[in-house]
Specification:
The complex is a heterodimer of chains A (111) and B (117). Chain A contains no helices and 11 strands. With 111 residues, chain A is mostly beta strands. Chain B is an all-beta fold and 117 residues long. Chain B has one domain: Immunoglobulins (Immunoglobulin-like), CATH 2.60.40. In chain B, strands 2, 4, 5, 6, 9, 10 and 11 form a 7-stranded mixed sheet that branches. A 4-stranded antiparallel sheet of chain B has the order 1-3-8-7, with no helix packed on it. In chain B, a hairpin with a 5-residue loop joins β4 and β5. The chains are: A mainly beta (111), B mainly beta (117).
């Protein structure tokens, strides 16, 4: 499977702590994206990182990409209760029409 | 501006009946995608439209599933003779760029929760 896989499957932290989620994939990608999903409904795009990039920031989010290890990480700093959601990585492989999603990490931020 | 909208938000049907799910993408978005998400699972790709054509239908699980897109805008996903295993949330997304380009952020609708009794 070319599917990205997130780790851990579930994560529970206290408000104010940092949360780190990881994504691994099997085949060389063109770009990797992270999405958030609240309450099992629509997904919201968070950040996209291209294969020639190593790190990107957006507000409290930091994404890294290590193409040699075929892995990416999403760091949420100073977490808030509102960050409670499922987080998915999605990979696009050149020549593919599909953006392939992993099964997600369920993050719970306890107030 | 308006985001991606889907209707109905919830659909309960009996096994064997046909259902139609609708997606209104963001105006100007040429690419449209359908996904299925079963409880607690990731997204399963179903079909991709570029304009009115579907270059990739590889994710449709059986010939009971079909989709069309008209006028480069609204898309309808039809499931014939529904089965209990079809129960899931069906998500639609659209993007400005198609997957052949380097940037393809997808904007998702709220989904249709389908329950087949």
């Amino acid at each position: 499977s070319q599917q990205g896989e997130e780790d851990p499957q579930a994560l529970s932290i206290q408000e104010g702590e940092n949360a780190t989620m990881n994504c691994s994939y099997k085949t060389s990608i063109n770009n990797l994206q992270w999405y958030r999903q609240n309450s099992g409904r629509g997904l919201v795009h968070l950040i996209l990182i291209r294969s020639n990039e190593r790190e990107k920031h957006s507000g409290r989010l930091r994404v890294t990409l290590d193409t040699s290890k075929k892995s990416s990480s999403l760091l949420i700093t100073a977490s808030r209760a509102a960050d409670t959601a499922s987080y998915f990585c999605a990979c696009w492989w050149a020549g593919s029409y599909q953006l392939t999603f992993g099964k997600g990490t369920k993050l719970s931020v306890i107030p | 501006g308006a985001g991606v909208s889907q209707s109905p938000s919830n659909k309960v049907t009996e096994k064997g009946k046909d259902v139609e799910l609708r997606c209104d993408p963001i105006s100007g978005h040429t690419a449209l995608y359908w996904y299925r998400q079963s409880l607690g699972q990731g997204l399963e790709f179903l079909i991709y439209f570029q304009g009115n054509s579907a270059p990739d239908k590889s994710g449709l699980p059986s010939d009971r599933f079909s989709a069309e897109r008209t006028g480069g805008s609204v898309s309808t996903l039809t499931i014939q003779r529904t089965q209990q295993e079809d129960s899931a949330v069906y998500l639609c997304a659209s993007s400005l760029a198609w997957l052949g380009e380097t940037y393809n952020e997808q904007f998702f609708g709220p989904g249709t929760r389908l329950t087949v009794l």
